[in-house]
Amino acid sequence: EPESVDNVAERVRSVGSNFTAEELQELLQQRNSSSLSESLNKVKQLGATRDALELLESVWAGNQSQYPHLAWQSIADPGVRLDIADILLQAAKNGDIAREPADVHEFVRNTLESDSPRLVGQAAITLSTFDRDEDVPALEQIALQRDSRTFPSMVIALARMCTPAAESALTRIETVASAP
Fold first, then answer.
1. What secondary structure letter does DSSP report for 83?
2. What distance lies between CA 63 and its chain's CA centroid?
3. What is the pLDDT of residues 126-161, one digit of tens each?
């Protein structure tokens, strides 16, 4: 039986290290996608070793034959995929992996079209890691809908982006939002 997430996280925290590939494999065996997502958030907070990041790259690529014991149905959950994308993007941005997997941006961008406000918000925050001007119009369009479930995430995502296009979008959103 896999060790509990809290026990693994506490062990990682107590030795002041990052999650290893072995520990990450334990976490990726969780059948409940909400629990798995929660575990991946702990990985985001505490970090992962290079071998753990390589495992996540392999998981992102869908190498099920290499890791048949993982909970692939949970891993396929869009929220879990966003968590994995976020970890890989941050690792690429920090230089911990050579580059982001090719289809990560497209997956995150497409998630903006989800019917789930939670997923849309999560995708926006993850998308902000890319700092790409071409993402600004989609974020701005969602923000201008002024849906209280997604508006804060869009503004936070645009504010996190370090581009003139994002700054201009925030100004336009402020103008529209403050109009009577």
1. H
2. 19
3. 999 888 999 999 999 999 999 999 999 999 999 999
The Cα 121–Cα 112 span in angstroms is 8
- In angstroms, the CA 23 to CA 76 distance is 20
Cβ-proximal residues to 83 (8 Å cutoff; 6+ apart), any chain: 37, 40, 41, 44
100 vs 91: CA distance, rounded Å: 8
Contact assessment for residue 113 and residue 87, using Cβ atoms and an 8 Å cutoff: no
Taking the CB of residue 67, how many other CB atoms lie within 10 A of it?
16
Prediction pTM value: 0.85
Phi-psi region of 179 (alpha: psi -120 to 50; beta: other; left: phi over 0): beta
Q: Is the dihedral of CA 82, 84, 89, 90 positive or negative?
A: positive
